[in-house]
Design goal:
alpha/beta; 6-stranded mixed sheet; 20 helices; 5-stranded parallel sheet; globular
Length: about 550
């Protein structure tokens, strides 16, 4: 179940469907879907020399080019395509839709093709963003998928989620049994809509079924509001938490450490960047060693290149120059990122903040928690945003504890510099994922869900050990229960039928409300240590800022 490979296979077939010079015509979403798994240089090798957006006005007429169209079958795109076909800018059109296209849309396109330039129309099911081989997203706005009171998102959002799931299943040639989180109205709505669509298109699911059927479990973020609030210490997760990653792009232009503005925007893709692929799941301490090794390697090659004396030396330099230039770019990129990460860790006192976060998430001691939080409020080095996350974690763990001091902490947050909206978001968090809302069969703060600390308390670059990564997301326990066949059917019912009790070989998890890179890391670890293949998908990939902003958005919309 490799979603990166599935999308790469589709794109490869598209650009190789015909010879000659080609243009790749994309829409606002497929441009991101393609860029996350295929480089421009790879597409250029297939004689595809131009990349255009379908919605770009006044494109030049180039009748000598063949257009490879990869677009979502939306009403907007169909109208744009009809307009394109009535006044074609290219000699031939090969159209690929990311999902099932209706008969009505096909008839409209046929009527618009007055010049008979359309040579091919196919459905290639790539209606989602492949983040890692075992992780994908729909890149939806978190605020559109997170709501208080267990109310579902808009019909348009539910439809987009169903389309993404449907496309993912077909791209992997999987027809799973579906289980849903019973406590979630949204999960049940998505599951039932998906099942109905699978029945309506059963002719597409005729591939051979495995001996033990796959299972798709649809979850809701509100059962685990803790994970998105925690500081992260693995490379991929740290970058998203501290800087932000959007469709594999990282914007360093506004980073305080990037004073020379030498690196503005960089691409981070495990398919395109060997260093990133090797280190994306390493912790902050291990990254220091890896970066040092990368710089030493570059330095050694730089010295070799500076000692060019003979014609043979020059030939060798020219031969190795592309690799050397790529290495130089990698060093510049990852040094810039690491410099920013180190700066934020130091400026925000994140080692101490993270230690308290882990204590709040994994250990029960109200008196010590109060003492620690009061001490952090008095520490001027702790930023208001980090203090807000600590109060949120406290309010979740000690929601029903006698002597709970959340109200006092809310007043202190205002004095610390938090906005009125941020202060309200603490109450909104409880309304969204407090003890009264979460599934009753799940103990979010139970010791069985969390590993105990085994590391020491060293500080500095090499100091990020197990004390900062005690927390295990609830998802880890859920997947473990699925694999063992112990996930309670009362809380996670099958929508139709039930497979045997045999251990499933393929498990698909989808979380409405968004997933995190900590959960992606956990799934990667499960895949490395188990014979079961686990694939994780979500409406978006959250960091703490996005999660809190989504709660704020919900608060303002409901007038809380």
């Amino acid at each position: 179940m490799n979603v990166v490979k599935a999308l790469r296979d589709y794109i490869g077939k598209m650009v190789r469907i015909t010879g000659g010079m080609k243009v790749l015509l994309l829409d606002s979403e497929t441009s991101g879907i393609v860029s996350m798994v295929y480089t421009q240089s790879e597409v250029l090798q297939e004689e595809t020399y131009l990349f255009e957006r379908l919605d770009t006005q006044n494109r030049e007429v180039m009748a000598h080019l063949k257009a490879i169209c990869f677009i979502r079958p939306t009403a907007e795109n169909i109208n744009l395509l009809k307009k394109e076909l009535r006044k074609p800018k290219y000699g031939e059109y090969y159209i690929f839709f990311t999902n099932v296209i209706s008969k009505n849309y096909l008839e409209q396109l046929a009527a618009a093709d007055e010049h008979e330039v359309v040579h091919e129309v196919q459905e290639f099911f790539g209606d989602y963003y492949a983040v890692n081989p075992d992780c994908w997203s729909l890149n939806l706005s978190p605020s559109s998928c997170i709501s208080v009171g267990n109310s579902p998102p808009s019909e348009a959002i539910v439809e987009r989620i169903v389309e993404g799931l449907f496309s993912c299943l077909l791209s992997l040639k999987i027809r799973p049994y579906i289980r849903v989180q019973k406590s979630s109205t949204t999960a049940k709505m998505i599951g039932n809509s998906l099942l109905e669509r699978m029945k309506q298109n059963k002719s597409l699911f005729t591939f051979r079924a495995p001996e033990v059927p796959p299972v798709l479990v649809i979850l809701d973020r509100f059962d685990d509001p803790v994970t998105p609030l925690l500081s992260q210490w693995t490379y991929q997760a740290m970058i998203h938490e501290m800087i932000g990653v959007e469709k594999n792009l990282v914007d360093l232009s506004k980073c305080s450490s990037n004073t020379k503005k030498e690196v503005a925007q960089v691409v981070l893709s495990p398919e395109q960047d060997p260093f990133y692929k090797e280190n994306m799941y390493k912790n902050f301490g291990e990254l220091g060693i890896s970066i040092r090794s990368l710089v030493d390697n570059y330095s050694a090659k730089s010295k070799l290149n500076s000692n060019i004396q003979t014609l043979d030396d020059m030939k060798e330099f020219v031969k190795n120059y592309p690799e050397f230039k790529k290495l130089s770019g990698s060093v510049t990129k990852h040094m810039a990122i690491m410099t920013e990460l180190q700066a934020q860790v130091a400026q925000r006192n994140l080692l101490d903040v993270s230690e308290l976060e882990q204590t709040l998430a994994c250990h029960e001691n109200h008196e010590q928690a109060l003492e620690a939080i009061n001490g952090f409020f008095a520490n001027n080095k702790v930023k208001a945003g980090d203090m807000l996350r600590l109060v949120m974690l406290y309010s979740l763990r000690y929601q029903n504890t006698p002597g709970n001091q959340t109200s006092r902490f809310l007043s202190m947050l205002k004095d610390k510099g938090c906005s009125e909206a941020d202060v309200k978001s603490v109450k909104q968090l409880i309304a969204y994922g407090g003890s009264e809302v979460r599934s009753k069969t799940i103990d979010l703060f139970g010791q069985s869900f969390f590993a105990k600390a085994t590391g020491d308390l060293k500080r500095g670059l090499m100091g990020v050990t197990n004390i900062y990564t005690q927390h295990q997301p609830l998802l880890s326990q859920t997947v473990d229960d699925i694999i063992k066949g112990t996930l309670p059917e009362l809380s996670f019912p099958f929508l139709e039928g039930a497979p045997t009790k045999a251990k499933p070989q393929n498990v698909l998890i989808f979380m409405t409300g968004g997933i995190t890179y900590e959960e992606a890391f956990a799934v990667n670890g499960l895949n490395a240590s188990s014979s079961t293949n686990v694939l994780l998908g979500g409406t978006s990939i959250l960091n703490s800022t996005q999660f809190i902003n989504a709660l704020n958005s919900t608060s303002s919309e409901q007038g809380i």
